[in-house]
Structure formats: structure tokens, C-alpha cells
């Protein structure tokens, strides 16, 4: 991914801030979820930055974002960061479910693929990443409330 230095610094700064608030105990599984949040942001930004560089203020009804609009619109990167930070208030590592719920919690079942002994570790690791990316993308797609 090629971003401007300013954009990469913003992504890295917010990744660091997110680590403090969502993973104060330095749980390595939560760290992987935070990395997935920002990988989603980076990929969405990379894919859409040319076609949709700005989101008009009128298309974003939630007004209490950390990153505010400038001249009547949000930059796409600011919009994506806002969505992730506004919609995720916690990460739950469990052994029962993968989901993003309405309580703004990303839940990841770290044991979901452990019973597949006939699959390679690399394949299982890819499936775990896919699960983290899938659930964190729900948060970015969700309407801010």
C-alpha cells in the first residue's frame, strides 16, 4: 500500500491510540483484532480514495466524531477512522462466537478452527485473519449511533 507520509502517520497514530484504549492489557489476540481494524481501513482507503476522496457532511448524520469535517466534508481516511473508532468500544476474545454486536463489541472466537487437524497451520491462520477482517468490517460499515 502506498499512502502519503501524512496519511500513514495518521493511520499509525490512531492505531497506537486504539491499542491504548482497546488493549490496555496487551492481549496478543486483541492486538490481532486491532491490526485487522486498521488493515480494513487501509484497504478501503486504498481502493476508494480516487473515486471517493471526500464524504459530504450531509451524508454523515453522526456529529460527535474525533476527526471533524473540514469545509463541509470528511476526507475518506478521516471518515473510515471515525467509523472504526466510533463503532468499536470493546474487543471480546472468547471461545463461543465471532460477531460484531450492537453493543459495539467485536467478538472473536480464537478456538473456531482448532478442530480441523487435516488443514495446514497457514490455512487456519488465514481463516482466523479472514474472521477478524470480516467482523471488523461490520463495524466500519455500521451506521454511527
Question: What would you note in describing this structure?
Answer:
This protein has 145 residues and is α+β, with helices and mostly antiparallel strands. The chain is 50% helix and 12% strand. The strands form two sheets. Strands 3-5-4 form a three-stranded mixed β-sheet, with helices on one face. Helix 2 runs antiparallel to helix 3, helix 2 packs across helix 4 (121-141) and helix 3 (76-87) packs across helix 4 (121-141). It is globular. It starts with a helix and ends with a helix. The mean pLDDT is 92.
Topology:
Layout: H1 5-22, H2 28-48, E1 54-56, E2 73-75, H3 76-87, E3 90-94, E4 99-100, E5 105-109, H4 121-141
Parallel strand pairs: 3-5
Antiparallel strand pairs: 1-2, 4-5
Helix pairs in contact: 1-2, 2-3, 2-4, 3-4
Summarize, please.
With 145 residues, the chain is of the alpha+beta class.
Given the helix and strand composition, which structural class is it? alpha+beta
User: Fraction of residues in helices?
Assistant: 40-55%
If you compute it from the alpha carbons, what radius of gyration comes out, rounded to the nearest whole angstrom?
16 Å
Quaternary assembly: single chain
**Silhouette:** globular
**H/E topology pattern:** HHEEHEEEH
User: Would you report the number of β strands?
Assistant: 5
Strand order of the largest sheet: 3-5-4
Mean of residue pLDDT values: 92
User: Number of helical runs?
Assistant: 4
Q: Into which percentage range does the β-strand content fall?
A: 5-15%
Give the low-confidence spans. none
Biggest beta-sheet profile: 3 strands, mixed
Q: What's the end-to-end separation, in Å?
A: 31 Å
